[in-house]
Amino acid sequence: MNSSSDANQSVSPPFCLLGAAGYSRSLDTCVLEAVVILFLTVLIISGNLVVIFVFHCAPLLHHHTTSHFIQTMAYADLLVGVSCLVPSLSLLHFLRGLNEELTCKAFGYLVSVLKSVSMASLACISVDRYVAVTRPLSYATLVTPCRLRACIVLIWVYSALVFLPSFFGWGKPGYHGDVFRWCAESWTTEPGFSAFIAALLYAPAALIVCFTYGSIFRICRQHTREITQRHARFGSQPTEGGDKEGERGGERCEGCPDRRYAMVLFRITSVFYVLWMPYILYFLLESAGLYHHKVASFLTTWLAISNSFCNCLIYSLSNSVFRKGLGRLFSPLLPSCLGCLDAKKAPEPRRPV
Question: Would you say 150 and 4 are in contact if contact means Cβ atoms under 8 Å apart?
Fold first, then answer.
C-alpha cells in the first residue's frame, strides 16, 4: 500500500495555484507562477537592503523619530522577501522533504506577522507626526527614545500575538501559503477569526491613519491660510532694507520641510493601503462565503506583498536626503558618473572684468 501511494505521489502533477484553478495544469503555469514570486522576492530583498544601507549612510535621515519606524518596516519587509524564497523553492520542487502542513502554516503566519508590523508602524508614524504638529513644544518630552523603543517592541509582540490563534486551529491568517497544496485545499478561513483580525488590526490602523493625516493636512492648510492673510494685510507696508523681507520669506517657508516630509510619509501610507485593500476585501468576502476564486487569491496576495518593495521607490522619488544618501552609497561603484554630475552642479567661476 505504501509503495503504491508513493508511486501515485511521484506521478502526480506538480501543484500550483494557477494550475489548480483550471486554467492550465501544465508545468509552464507552475514555472510562470514561480518566476513571478521569485522576481518579487529579488525586488523586495534588494530594495529593502538599499533602504537599510542608505539610512546608515545618511545621518540627516535620523533627525526625525519616524526614521526608526521606517527602518523597522524595512527590516520587516526584508524578512518578507527572505521568507518568500520558501514558496519559490517549493514551486521549483526543491523542498519536497519538508512537512507541507507545518511549512505552509509557518510561512503564512510569518508573512502575516511581518505585514502586520508594517501596518502598525505606519499607524505609529501617523501618530508621531500628529503629535509633532499639534504639540510641537512638548513633543520632545512626549516622544522620548525609551518610549520609541518600547513602542517598536510592542508592535512586534502585538503582531505576533494577533495571528497566533491560527496555529491552534482557529482560522487562517491569509493566503500567502496557498502555493502549498495543504494550505490551498485543507486550511480554510473562518468568519470569526477574520472578524477578529479586522477588528484588532485592519480597522484600527486605517482609522488612526485617516484621522491623523486628515488632522495634519487640515492644520497645515489653516496655517498656510493664516500666513497668506498676514502677508496680504501687511505686505503693502514699506520695509527697511531686505531684512524684513527675508524674515517674511523665512516665515512663509517655516514648516515647509516638515510638510514635505509628511507628504512623503502620506504617499507611503497611501500606496500601502491601495495595494493591500484588494487583499483585505477579498479576505473578508472569502471568509464570509460570498466569493472564492483561486486566481483572485493569488493576484491580491502577491499584489499586497509587492508593497514591500515600494518604500524604496517612493523614497528615491520623493526624498532629496534619501537620494543624497543613495548617491553616497553607490559612489564607490560609479565614481565617474557622480563626478560628472558634481561638475555640472558646480557653479561656473566668474570671469575677471
Answer: no
